[in-house]
Amino acid sequence: MKLCVVLSLLILTGTLLFAGCIGFEGSQSNPKTKEAFSLDSGYVSEEYAYSPSPDVKKAPFSSYGGEIPLEQSLHEQKIIRTANIQLEVKNVTYSTGEVQEIAKKFDGLVQSSSVQATSKNRYSGTVTIRIPAEHFDLAISEISAIGIILSSSVNAEDVTEEYVDLQAQRDALSYQLDQYNRLLTKGQNVSEILEVQKEIERVQVELDRIVGRMKYLDNRISLSTITVGLSEPAQLETPGGYSLPSVISEGIAGFVNTVVWLFIAILTILPLVLVGGAGYVLYKRWKIGKTE
Q: DSSP per residue over 2-41, as a string?
């Protein structure tokens, strides 16, 4: 009896396992499910549809949060180039003119220029010029040939990322401004119109700031800045004949120095003279009184 019950249970268990395996294989062979999860074909459901695009390069993202168009990301880099050169020249005034002529030669401009006299009839000067970026290296080469290079430094600042971010912000603000202008035409009451105008003013101010910054960067990128410092060498002093003006000048200076020295000496010894004279007078009186 017990053996029959055990056999019945084993047969029942085997039947259930066999039915479960058949059902599992049927579910795995469902063609719709395979099609839904296949990456080679689009996935379509009631909520959304996915259609893969093979071999598509993703465009980078700007730090502003928007996606940069692929063609824009391939643009040339935005580089601000500056240079600082210190030269020793024979004649600062003449060399200043040479630097200015180099700026004109390369269609640049002179931003500032100054010349000042130093000790012993020596001069120094500073010239700052703006040169189109494509002529930057040639201009430095010609400027360096004017005199002896004492020091030279060149700096290249990459502002590509900032420029791309500004472009993304400009486009986003322009889109906002367009939407607000559309809403303005649909305003139903005064309060709505005033609120929209307030937002338009806010967006316009921010847009002007962005555009202004972009224009500033464009100017710095297109025109590189070169600052040239000029100085004359120290003059060697050689003995020579005396001239009347120099003799008179040195004589007057010597006389003034002598008078000043005597005045200081008198003021220094005057207290001693007064004390000594007073002591001598007292001594004389004491001596006369003693003899009487």
A: HHHHHHHHHHHHHHHHHHHHHHHHHHHT-HHHHHHH-TTS
Q: What pLDDT, in 10s, does the model give residues 263-290?
A: 888 888 888 888 888 887 887 777 777 7
DSSP letters for 71-123: HHHTSPP-EEEEEEEEEE-S-HHHHHHHHHHHHHHTT-EEEEEEEEE-GGG-E
pLDDT digits (tens, 9 = 90+) for 4-25: 444 454 554 555 444 444 444 4
- Helix (H/G/I), strand (E/B), else coil: 236: coil
The pair of structure tokens assigned to 146 is 């004017």
Place of tokens 């003899």: 291
* pTM assigned to the model: 0.55
Contact 270, 156 (CB under 8 A): no
Cβ neighbours of residue 156 closer than 8 Å, sequence gap 6 or more: 79, 80, 81
Residue for token digits 């009487």? 292
